[in-house]
Amino acid sequence: MSVQQPRDDLLIAVALAEFSYRHEETNPDIAERAWTIATGYTSKYDIHPYEAIDALRVLDELEAGNAAPLEITDGEQ
Fold first, then answer.
1. Which CA distances in Å does 5 have to 20, 24, 26, 44, 48?
2. Are 55 and 45 in contact (CB under 8 A)?
3. For the chain, what is the mean pLDDT?
């Protein structure tokens, strides 16, 4: 299975989330728009933009055949 499209989506989300973070004080309207767009890219994978970098790491491990089984939780105990 190719992971190119998810990888592209996640890379875009990471870039937009970084942009949003860096510009939230200097240009809050554009920062908010960038975050909203990033959310659109990550929502199809049921993650938040701030989780995209971790998801990229998982994709790399899966593609390399080195991924250990993961327990995925929603963060609530």
1. 22, 28, 32, 12, 17
2. yes
3. 86
Q: What is the pLDDT of residues 37-69, one digit of tens each?
A: 999 999 999 999 999 999 999 888 888 887 665
Question: Does residue 19 lie within any of the structural domains?
Answer: yes
Q: Is residue 33 part of a domain?
A: yes
Tell me whether residue 70 is in a domain.
no
Domains identified in the chain, total number: 1
Q: Which of 64, 40, 70 is nearest to 52 (CA)?
A: 40
Report DSSP letters for 33-69, one per residue: HHHHHHHHHHHTTT--GGGHHHHHHHHHHHHHT-PPP
- Helix/strand/coil for 20: helix
Structural domain of residue 25, as residue ranges?
4-64
Token reading at 59: 């994709």
